[in-house]
Amino acid sequence: MARGRGEREDYEKNPGLLSLLQVLSFLVVFVAGVVIGLATSAHINRHFGSQTEIYSFINHFSSNKPNEEENCTIVQGCEKVDCLSMETFLQPKNLTHDMSDDELFWRASMVPGKVEFPFERVPKVAFMFLSRGPLPMMPLWERFFQGHDKFFSIYVHVLPGYTLNVSSTSPFYGRQIPSQLVSWGTVTLVDAERRLLSNALLDFSNQRFVLLSESCIPVYNFPTVYKYLIGSNHSFVESYDDPGRYGRGRYSRKMLPEIELYQWRKGSQWFELSRTLAIYIVSETKYYTLFSRYCLPACYPDEHYMPTYFNMFHGSLNSNRTVTWVDWSLGGPHPATYGGDNITEDFVRSIRNSGALCQYNSEMTSICYLFARKFAPSALEPLLELASSVMEF
To answer: Are 130 and 213 within 8 A, CB to CB?
Structure first.
């Protein structure tokens, strides 16, 4: 206690010493505050700086995503596409999608309630190729299509995993649809046909739909085929009553009462449909289910489903004939195949004009077949040589 009183007395006697101590204390506190402030500031800068870098990196990464959807805008290659635009909705250019068959058929079955089109519609013919793989007649078809881009669409169904080897300038480029396995003589053939129709129906400009194989050829030029199909009042699905073992003999009584024997029909698989009948086929479920259950080998759904269904419900819209020529004269389950040695000018002209007449709208015509099959790859070169002089393309 004595020492405390003595120190206080010393400060009172020397006021200058007291002032000096106060100044020194202030300086110590000030310097300490500055040091603490600088350290804190540096830490904050480092934290926010790293956050900014991370944010910039994320932005940069996101902006370079190849298919980023932003306001429904997607990037396909180098082209930005508005997936909600009328053009994309009416005429889809990219055939790749992940829809199931049920989803695809449902979407394809939609019909506008408004009759008038809100765009200038040029009706097109959809050429649908059903193939196991390669299209050996492709050069002939490319020549057939040349110069008529606005009037046709192409759709190709091949076995899953197969990719057509075509140049980017070919009309077949990018025209493969999502496909599934197909087995000859089973309902999977009808599934593939409905899959082709559904993909083609997504383009509202497609008015007519023709099914072709890899062995099919055109026997007339494009303007003739286009005018013939677009101007027809009927579809071309062969449908006739065959009383023999390969017709009525394939009927199953399990289809009663929905389908009776007298309604059973047979016809060529290779059809041509109007848009109206195409929509009926992809949206129909009841009779397709019956055929998938009860039309089993040696009953072939692709030869009976459409001929029977159209005969029962839409006969007035069908011509009951096909526009694809096939030679069944040899008998057996498959038609005759023609190779290079069989191709002559007279042979092709005989297909174009067989001498028989057929009904077209309300008149008779000598032009009954627009396409023909079955042609081997060796037939390509002689057919190309005759294309200009005989088939006129």
So the answer is: yes
CA distance 179 to 278: 19
In this structure, what token pair is assigned to residue 332? 């057996």
pLDDT tens sequence across 74-127: 555 566 666 667 777 888 888 999 999 999 999 999 999 998 888 899 999 999
- Give every CB contact of residue 165 below 8 A, 6+ residues apart in sequence: 134
**What crossing angle do the helices spanning 2-13 and 15-63 adopt, rounded to 10°?**
90
For residue 364, which phi and psi values (nearest 5 degrees)? -100, 145
C-alpha closest to that of 142 among 392, 384, 379: 384
* Cα separation, 115 vs 121, whole angstroms: 12
Contact in structure between 211 and 125 (CB atoms under 8 Å): no
Domains and CATH numbers, the chain: 98-113+121-325 (3.90.550)
Q: What gap in Å lies between CA 192 and CA 317, rounded to an integer?
A: 23
CA distance 234 to 375: 28
Task: Give the distance, in angstroms, between the CA of residue 15 and the centroid of all CA atoms in the same chain.
Answer: 99
In this prediction the pTM is 0.80
List helix spans (H) across 75-183: 86-90, 101-108, 138-145
At 133, list the tokens.
Answer: 């793989």
